[in-house]
Fold this protein.
Amino acid sequence: MQVEPVSFGNVGGRPAFLYKLRNASGMQVAVTDFGARVVSVKVPSAAGEVIDVVLGYDDAAGYAADDAWLGAPVGRVVNRIGGASFQLAGKTYELTANEGKNCNHSGRDFWCKRFWSVARAEQGADGGLVELVLDSPDGDQGFPGAIQMHLTYELTANNELVITYDGTPDATTLVNMTNHSYWNLNGCGGVTVLGHRLAVDAGAYTETDDALVSTGSILPVDGTPLDLRDGKKLKDVVASTDHSIVNARGVDHNFVLPEAGEGEDGFVGGLRHAATLEGDVSGIKLDVFTDLPGMQVYTGNYVGGVCGKGGVKYHDHDAVALETNFFADAIHHPNFPQPVFGPDRPYRSRTVYAF
């Protein structure tokens, strides 16, 4: 059956709506057509309590004013592009320098602050989905080529939130999307995430300079605080005196995931496990699966002062983002997997957040 939209305020005089999904286990997911944001993910704990595990706002106006990327799909290209420009097929493209001399999260008219069209919103007996669509014209945000991006959020019977991106550019361009939800498995009530345990299936990470722009070097995690293969509490990593962690005020690092292998049905790669996050109080466990080559771990180093749902004031390190992606600034580093897509190479990717 169709999901009935719920009023979610308005932006610029246009009404926004919330679409709520549920499954038989009691898990619930809500997304909005304004910005295609994930507004809430409610998960039953071992004690039977249903806990909202993502940071967010009470209405669309909160997301319109947001500059912390809560629940946001980031596109056309996530993270930083050095010098706010790049060359593709012999032509130079200039982007918006919105972080010093660099471009971050595409830097102009962000996709997560536009209204998306709702193509489908369906609820079944044990799960459902919402498919949202955005038309991005040639030259949008400074990137070449037009693309119609389809973004689908699916709640499965197995307590999985499956996020699928699907779009075919009409010209060669860059596409590197992610979801920027902030997770706190103890709840989004202004409590720290530092007691959570995080394990990442990565033996290397991409080095950045002091402006957090990729240098092009891939470094082993061995002997560093970023060796999360066996899992560590986030507080032990954030407290490190390692220069890159101190410079970022916490973790803001891209991990190099194991080779994904060939993807089927046009997906970028094969789906494989990337990370496990465990709530220290709730006992809720989150496993991340993706077909993308990397995952940015960001411990909410600058969310302090944000006023979220129910008037709760968030603090730095109140949540962690697990952003699957191509490596940041890949276009300037040929040794990185390249997020270059076009008419003969559609962009189709999938990430699963499994509880």
